[in-house]
Amino acid sequence: MKQWIGFFLLGAVFAFCGAQAVPPQSRIDGLVLAKQAETGFPPSELCTDDVFIRRVFLDVIGTLPTAKEVREFSASPKPDKRRLLIDYVLDREEFAAYQSLKWCDLLRVKSEFPGNLWPNAVQAYQRWVRDAFRQNMPYDRFARALLTTSGSNFRDPPVNFYRPFQERTPRKILDSVALIFMGVRLETSGWTEEQLQGMDAFFAKVAYKKTAEWKEEIVYSDPEKVLLNPQTKEPVLPTPIGGVPLKLDHFADPRVAFADWLTAPENPWFAKAIANRVWFWLMGRGIVHEADDIRPGNPPWSPELLAYLEKELVQNKYDLKHLFRLILNSATYQRSSVPTSGNAADEAGFSHYRVRRLDAEVLIDAINQITGSGEEYSSAIPEPFTYIPPSQRTITLADGSIKSPFLEMFGRPGRDTSLESDRNNNPSVFQTLHLLNSSHIQNKIMKGYRLRKMADSIQGNRERVVQLYLTILSRMPSAGEEKIALGYIESSERADDGFYDVAWALINSSEFILKH
Fold this sequence. Notes:
The protein is built from 23 helices and five strands. By secondary structure, the protein is mostly helical.
């Protein structure tokens, strides 16, 4: 088996070029090409159809396309088939599941320390987030629902936004709000202490109380709570950055005033932050990098591009799917990941698609989809909500406290912070060894019902090889790859052994493990 590593991990990776370069397809492309002309990095050609379908499935819904979907897309003569495919994946159920996974990372949805949301609250919270994306809730309404919520953490799911704090202070709440919805880190924001106190005052009335039900908690706005200036001992008035102090009614909830200011079309952070974050999710790097570090000292790669995306989002009533469509339909997104001699040194721009490893949850789901196997999870919390059937997709896991050794090894975030960098997609030697040598992966390949069904039902080794490539790499094998694979299978003592070896080699290839 090991003699295959050299071929599949080194010789066959990224041999997928050949598409022709095309003129700009959108306003995004015009702005990107203008910036690339300044930096001197010409764009790569467009990726092939086989690469595109795999890329858009993984980026948008965290799911591999099936062999049937790859065949149909590649064979389609429709000139707008890429646009139609984008619409198709955005309407799939997995879009809401994958987006809720990303947002549950940001919102720190986790039963145990440090969030202590508790399992039943976690389930309700994750379902609310998932349903918001299933219904394509406008982003300003989504943010407002989280920011202005009151009620029971069990019965009013958005209430859990205010619970995962070890220190329940206005400053800690502001720290999360600014990071998630403004892309601002307080420690690098440059805001003065006076400005921070003015922003703290929006969350000074947030209060908590227990109920008779075990682990239930009520979040509400307490009109008697006041934030005092530590020097003057005078009440601090809620004051937006760059604005004037607000004199609110004694019984008014200042969080409503904050949501009004934050989601206003002229707000300089709100639409910009989510446009930059979605770009980062799809392109592997933010226009402002890092994606959650917007500040004067960290300018965007192209201010014009970011301003355009921000404007489009506002004009289309904060429809996030519209933003996804704009980016996905651009030639910039559809560039090949193979750099040219002229853009190989481009680290900050978008002259070619950024190669990066699959998220931990997406990777194990892909292996399970290919092999027809399930995954086992563990939790220290002995409650019914923490039992996960092996057949459940990992991208649908609600609770960050539910674990598996694979997820921990492959960099799943601990949900202890809301930073994008909390997820670690850097490859390691331990990950490589696990995929190559562990009984965990080997058992999936040898015992999974889908590979076994493929081996039993497909007649002819050539057809088996083709199906393996379509299923695992989402493309047809080249003539050279087909010849080598057939030669190996036919030289094996048992053809089935050779078949499983080829599957093992493809799963261990960089082409499978990486998004490209």
